[in-house]
């Protein structure tokens, strides 16, 4: 009977499948839409119980034989790129570093790598030929002299990193120099300074009692100055404290005069207020007599002679004035003062 024949054939076929190990492609797997080459992980589960061949129609896919097993790529098994070298196992002298790669994909004919196998490589490495060694300090050197010669200052002492010297890029721990304050127990010296010269004294001939005013007769006069502020061994002032010169005395002498040209305009006054004015003037100045301006002193030394005193000049009156003519004018185009 035909029905019985058909049944036997099916039994034979299923027997064959049972005897031969089921071909890999027919196994049911967990099928994933993405295989991550870097991590070797399966992502994006598409279904379970899918025939491996069906899942792997797309070579980008990946699969797991069981839920907790390794993920395998659908493409033919092949080695991943080598990982970067690991850091060296030591920071100085010699150590090692490793890298690895993994086999991803469906196991195919012999000669290809075995899926999820891993290979290692290791090599020697030496970041520095020697290891840094900390050095030791020498004894402190003597303190330097105080930085100032009076009052308080600073002094320093030093030590060197030589006992022993550090090795292989090492250093000493701590500071190589130290400072402290120092007291000289001395008050700072103050140098002397000259005051301004005094006014010249009256031009006269003291010894002989001759009146020399308003005449072609030389006298002598002096001025002095004092050195002030010297203290605590400070420097003395340099130079003489007295100055003597030859002179003609014209104090209150009546002399012929001449008008000066106009002076330059003076300042505008007031600087900020209403209607500022400027002024200039001409003055009647004495014409000094034509006396010789040098005399022979002791040892034939040539001495200068100076006129001394305020003479009374006589000029032709100008605008009815005898000594000073003044002119005033408003300052022009004055902007206001700010604030
Ligand atoms: C081995 O390779 C993996 C993947 O590239 C990487 O993450 C890991 O760091 C590597 N291990 C070593 C010791 O290099
Ligand atoms: C005398 O006067 C001349 C000319 O003014 C000047 O160069 C010289 O230095 C003066 N001599 C003294 C000792 O003041």
UniProtKB/TrEMBL annotation:
Annotated compartments: Secreted
SMART domains: TSP1
Domain of life: Eukaryota
One Pfam entry name: TSR
Record's keyword annotation contains Repeat: yes
Signal sequence, renumbered to the chain: 1-26
Secreted is among the record's keywords: yes
Name this protein carries in UniProt: Complement factor properdin
Species this protein is from: Podarcis lilfordi
């Amino acid at each position: 009977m035909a029905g019985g024949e058909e049944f036997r054939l099916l039994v034979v076929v299923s027997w064959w499948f049972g005897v031969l190990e089921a071909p890999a492609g027919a196994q049911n797997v967990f099928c994933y839409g993405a295989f991550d080459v870097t991590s070797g992980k399966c992502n994006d589960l598409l279904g379970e119980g899918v025939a491996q061949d069906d899942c792997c129609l797309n070579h980008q896919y990946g699969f797991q034989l069981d839920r907790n097993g390794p993920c395998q790529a659908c493409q033919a098994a092949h080695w991943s790129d080598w990982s970067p070298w690991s850091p060296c196992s030591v920071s100085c002298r010699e150590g090692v570093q490793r890298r690895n790669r993994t086999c991803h994909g469906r196991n195919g004919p012999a000669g290809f790598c075995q899926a999820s196998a891993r290979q290692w490589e290791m090599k020697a490495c030496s970041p520095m030929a020697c290891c840094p060694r900390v050095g030791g300090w020498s004894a402190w050197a003597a303190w330097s002299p105080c930085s100032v010669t009076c009052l308080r200052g600073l002094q320093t002492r030093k030590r060197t990193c030589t006992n022993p010297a550090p090795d292989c890029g090492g250093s000493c721990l701590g500071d190589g120099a130290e400072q402290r304050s120092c007291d000289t127990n001395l008050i700072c010296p103050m140098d002397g300074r000259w005051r301004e010269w005094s006014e010249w004294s009256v031009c006269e001939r003291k010894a002989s009692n001759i009146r020399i005013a308003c005449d072609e007769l030389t006298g002598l006069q002096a001025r002095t100055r004092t050195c002030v502020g010297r203290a605590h061994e400070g420097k003395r002032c340099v130079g003489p404290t007295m100055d003597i010169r030859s002179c003609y005395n014209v104090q209150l002498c009546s002399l012929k005069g001449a008008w000066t040209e106009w002076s330059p305009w003076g300042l505008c006054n007031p600087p900020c207020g209403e209607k500022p004015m400027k002024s200039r003037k001409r003055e009647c100045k004495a014409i000094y007599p034509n006396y010789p301006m040098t005399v022979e002193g002791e040892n034939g030394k040539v001495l200068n002679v100076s006129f001394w005193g305020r003479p009374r000049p006589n000029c032709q009156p100008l605008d009815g004035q005898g000594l000073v003519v003044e002119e005033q004018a408003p300052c022009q185009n004055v902007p206001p003062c700010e604030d």
